[in-house]
Amino acid sequence: MSVSVKVIDTEGKPVALDSIKVTRLPDQEDLTREYDEETWRVFSKAGSYPIADDSDGGRLPRHTDINVKFRGYIESREVANSDYVVTFDCCHIGLVSGERELVVSR
Fold first, then answer.
1. Is residue 106's pLDDT more than 70?
2. Which of 1, 11, 39, 56 is the most buried (most CB within 10 A)?
3. What are the tens digits of pLDDT across the range 46-95?
């Protein structure tokens, strides 16, 4: 399971970000993972970017709401910024609150 966000422009087209950053709040721990070029190409083409997934179980406390911040960048300019609350039960990550789709202007 994974929690992701779709980033689109004002015309509803997917936005290809150059990079993302995911941090746990309030301690600002960087949860951003590295992705290979092909995986990043898939994300960019769909405009859909991961916030957290089941493999983050070792980095996130279980059975509690976790506040995270997603930031998306084109070149070095921040174009997306949104807060989320996720939770990790015994096995899977889930979204508690936050926008599944972010509209950005290019």
1. no
2. 56
3. 999 999 999 888 888 889 999 999 999 999 999 999 999 999 888 899 99
| Measured distance CA(6)–CA(27) in Å, rounded | 25
Q: Are 62 and 56 in contact (CB under 8 A)?
A: no
Q: In the numeric block, which tokens belong to residue 48?
A: 């859909």
What amino acid occupies position 83? D
Distance between CA atoms of 42 and 49, rounded to whole angstroms?
9
What does the alpha-carbon distance between residue 2 and residue 4 come to, in Å, rounded to a whole number? 6
Cα separation of the two ends of the chain? 30
Q: In this model, does residue 22 exceed pLDDT 90?
A: yes
How many C-beta atoms surround the C-beta of residue 94 within 10 A? 13
| Predicted TM-score (pTM) of this structure | 0.92
- Range list of H helices, 1-106: 37-46
Q: Which uninterrupted H or E stretch holds 51?
A: strand 48-53
